Amino acid sequence: MADGSSDKEREIAALAEKASVCVACDLCESRTNVVFGEGNPNSPLVLVGEGPGETEDRTGRPFVGRAGQLLDECLRECGILRRHIFITNVVRCRPTLEEGGRLKNRPPRTDEASTCLSLWLEPTLSVIQPLVILCLGSPAANAIIKKGFRMMQERGQFFDSKYAHYAIAGLHPAYILRQQGEAYDAARASLIADIEAARKKVIEAKKEPPRTLF
Ligand code: SF4
To answer: N or C: which end of the chain has fewer CB within 10 A?
Structure first.
């Protein structure tokens, strides 16, 4: 390409521009920025989280608060830099609730998640065609793997997915940050194990014949 961008980079940039003015669900009313996602659209590995938090809403970038710093640490322990992969969320605008005069994060409602999934996440994954998706937290696992995903019983297992050759789910870094002492260490170690499993699965999946995804 004359400008050095790949086809996927240009397609993702066009999607992100369209999404930046999306008003398809109620979450548009309280957002500061649409957080579309970022990274390498040519990556065989995509991470999908829940939705933007306060720092993400302010900056327009995914996973840049404390949870994002923890995620970066865990990725680095597996030899992965965030610029090598693509990171996004189920919803692109911050879901909030008011408590004691302050806005707090909340999980996205089912209708918000399904609207953002069909409008923006599915087209994004359709462009990237990842080999492996790592879902961070239950909302992402429910959207990408199956409804009613049981995080504590089913995390770390690989599932077939219409969005990738394989999908796996791990703990959301924000959940890990809420743990203390040994529970924190165990939760952090489990996320590293799931990232490492996803990394190894990418290497295996590269040897498989190409598949037509959704
Ligand atoms: S959360 Fe998604 S669907 Fe809802 S307004 Fe934001 S970009 Fe649009």
So the answer is: N
